Amino acid sequence: MKTRVAEALARYGMLDGCRNVTVGLSGGADSCALLGVLCELREETEMNVSACHINHSLRGAESDRDEAFAVSLCERFGVPVEVYRVDVRGSVVKHESIEEAARRLRYECFGKAREKFGSQLATAHTANDTAETVLMNMIRGTGTKGLAGIPPVREGIIRPLILCTREQTENYCREHSIDYVTDSTNLIDDCTRNRIRHKVIPLLEEFNPSFIAAVSRMTEAVGDDESFIAGYALRCAEECRTKDGYDSRKLKTLHPAVLFRVISAELKANGIEPSRLRVSQCAALIDKGMGRVNLCRDKFACVRKKVFFIHTEFQQYKGRIPEK
Q1: Parallel, antiparallel, or unpaired for β 81-85 and 153-154?
Q2: Burial class (CB in 10 A: 0-12, 13-18, 19+), 17
Q3: Which helix (H) or strand (E) holds 296?
């Protein structure tokens, strides 16, 4: 596993520009193995390793047990650790699930740890997590970005275990006498990911025992394609840009795959979550060469005087308090 992690660090340039790495340490086998192997690689990579643990306060005594274990493991490896306690249930906002709130708070804490240690964050996502994510994306309906799975590097977050399997992390812990804890909620089939992990993947492995490795090869190939197309779309967007938006005539000549990405990026830039419906609505306006469509709440896509743009127009909805 050490060889695979070293390969991932090099292949994806995970340490380029920053050799301070903070491990998101839950206490499970994957994150414990990640902490152990990065500590093994400290000298040869000139890496500084730290850790952070988030107590989500969702499992009572079990959550406190995980926190104490994470702190003791960091003491064993001689790495500094930051511990954060968050009230997930008390922080859930409208239309947000417990899982979504936990993830939001977790990454907020990761950001604080990164700032404290001046580091990148290393999460313990493995090839198994990638396969589960790809299957979830397929069930919901996805494009190439969803088929590319979990990116090895993104916005200061690295995934050194992305080439390793969950079996390998458990073997590593056993071979190096590293204890780990098990989150009881991971054993219950009450969410999509757990059902995919416990039921769907074992069934697929009956057809191909190397299913996880096969998905890893696919995601790497699709990821390369997606990266190339996204980069090309960015260059095309700049060529179509005007002072007020984008030249709709130039946009109209773009390949649909490229236009999809240009529109998606513009929606994101304006605080709108891209969806195939919204992108299709914008593409239809561009093809028509005129008009406008309400994408969500106060956000509109327009084509006017051969320029495509997104703008905000405050709408008076029933029950909304007028702005002063």
Answers
A1: unpaired
A2: exposed
A3: strand 291-296
What is the pLDDT of the chain when averaged over all its residues? 91
Are 19 and 165 part of one and the same domain?
A: yes
Report the alpha-carbon distance of residue 165 to residue 201 in Å, rounded.
13
Assess contact for 192 and 132: CB atoms under 8 A. no
The predicted-structure confidence for 112-160, as pLDDT tens digits, reads as follows: 999 999 999 999 999 999 999 999 999 988 889 899 999 999 988 999 9
Please determine, for residue 256, whether its predicted confidence score (pLDDT) is greater than 80: yes
- Both 94 and 198 in one domain: the answer is yes
For residue 305, the tally of other CB atoms under 10 A from its CB is 9
Per the CB < 8 A criterion, the answer to whether 27 and 53 are in contact is: yes
Paired residues of 153 in beta bridges: 158
Residues 259 and 127 in one domain: no
Q: Decide: pTM greater than 0.90.
A: no
Side by side, the strands of the sheet bearing 81-85 are 81-85, 48-55, 20-24, 120-122, 157-158, 153-154
Q: What is the pLDDT of residue 192?
A: 84
